[in-house]
Backbone:
């Protein structure tokens, strides 16, 4: 059989919705007392990079890259940049492809090399030094703006500058971890003074996570044409939000305690090369919109700098689990709703001389579409809590309740080719 980007001797990888040979995302895992180590998702398994290196399955630049990726974080691997990443990816596809010359040697290693994913624990893929959350979903920005400023939803700077705020790296967690409802100050309706207590308007936000690879020297901006070389990969990100805390504190400086209590990311880093089939042109701006300033504009980035990926949000309540009901999809959106490209975010973040570092994390901001079915937060779906969402079994939600589990998914799909998925980004609310 001819080796193709979708055919592997790992049977579960073939036609796998997320982790076929066309994907090969990297992450960090552990099992049965082993220390956390780097691995590669292939079908229902995780390839242990440390075992593969010890067995002599990689050579040259691919071996150096695999050793860097095999530790308890991917920071060292991210720092190596695109050439090392591409060398490792090519070696992995050769090793795991149907016609691999190393197949017998690899199969002989059994579960030492290919760990069952269901038996493993997944960890944060990198140590996050800094975290910045952007606001590039223009439909989300418009929807939220209409709730608070009906006559002026988008402020004048939105279409000139990628808006963002610095988040809290210390409270970033990986999919599957619980999210504790935060305390803080809120201003109840009709009150003149705030009260303190648990947030009652807890929300999620559907976002793309952007991992930074090689950084830049402080004071030396990254040009828009080179920004793509500083991208290590993508994941899913849930920017949990306490809307009642946010409404009271966000003026004049923006989000603080309403955002810093929890952010959840999916565990697998999908490499840019796996997403090449889903590259597309950045959607054309309306004629009345300003064009990006020169430091944010690159012709190639406008032609190929966007991604066409499906995004989903599913919700499962405690009552649904008790009745055996599956999670309900409440949102179907797309990364095509980003007003700014990833490269534009990198260029803007560094233009003032800010130094980015391997393992820094960006959030895209909530990626809502134009229809109610494509809204990426409950704040939008329920119009600020005024129109409850009805779920199977008759339950309703305006905001999240204890026991609710939010599940984010993303996938690139193309006719005639394998899909590339991100896995899941899960989080359950606890009181």
Residues:
């Amino acid at each position: 059989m001819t080796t193709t980007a979708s055919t592997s001797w790992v049977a579960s990888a073939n036609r796998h919705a997320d982790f076929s040979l066309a994907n090969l995302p990297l992450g960090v895992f552990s099992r049965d007392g082993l220390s956390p180590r780097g691995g590669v998702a292939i079908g229902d398994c995780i390839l242990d990079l440390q075992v593969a290196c010890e067995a002599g399955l990689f050579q040259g630049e691919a071996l150096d890259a695999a050793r860097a990726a095999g530790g308890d974080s991917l920071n060292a691997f991210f720092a190596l940049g695109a050439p090392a990443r591409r060398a490792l990816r090519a070696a992995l596809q050769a090793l795991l492809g149907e016609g691999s010359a190393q197949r017998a040697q690899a199969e002989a290693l059994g579960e030492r090399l290919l760990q069952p994913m269901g038996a493993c624990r997944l960890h944060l893929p990198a140590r996050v030094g800094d975290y910045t959350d952007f606001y590039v979903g223009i439909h989300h920005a418009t929807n939220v703006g209409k709730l608070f400023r009906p006559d002026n939803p988008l402020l004048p700077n939105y279409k000139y500058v990628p808006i963002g705020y610095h988040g809290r790296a210390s409270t970033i967690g990986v999919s599957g971890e619980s999210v504790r409802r935060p305390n803080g100050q809120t201003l109840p309706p009709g009150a003149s003074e705030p009260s303190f207590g648990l947030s009652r308007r807890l929300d999620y936000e559907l976002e793309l996570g952007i991992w930074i690879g090689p950084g830049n020297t402080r004071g030396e901006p990254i040009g828009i044409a080179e920004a793509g070389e500083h991208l290590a990969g993508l994941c899913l990100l849930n920017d949990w939000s306490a809307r009642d805390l946010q409404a009271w504190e966000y003026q004049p400086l923006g989000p603080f305690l309403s955002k810093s209590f929890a952010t959840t990311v999916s565990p697998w880093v999908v490499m840019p090369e796996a997403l090449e089939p889903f590259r597309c042109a950045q959607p054309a701006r309306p004629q009345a919109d300003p064009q990006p300033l020169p430091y944010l504009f690159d012709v190639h980035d406008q032609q190929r700098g966007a991604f066409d990926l499906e995004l989903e949000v599913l919700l499962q309540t405690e009552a649904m689990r008790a009745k055996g009901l599956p999670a309900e999809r409440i949102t179907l959106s797309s990364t095509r709703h980003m007003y700014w490209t990833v490269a534009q975010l990198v260029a803007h973040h560094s233009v003032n001389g800010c130094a980015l570092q391997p393992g820094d994390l960006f959030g895209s901001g909530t990626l809502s579409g134009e229809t109610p079915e494509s809204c990426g937060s409950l704040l939008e779906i329920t119009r600020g809590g005024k129109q409850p969402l009805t779920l199977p079994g008759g339950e309703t939600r305006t905001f999240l309740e204890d026991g609710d589990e939010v599940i984010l998914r993303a996938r690139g799909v193309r006719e005639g080719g394998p899909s590339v998925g991100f896995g899941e980004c899960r989080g359950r609310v606890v009181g």
Q: What stands out?
A: The chain has two domains: 11-123, 131-430.
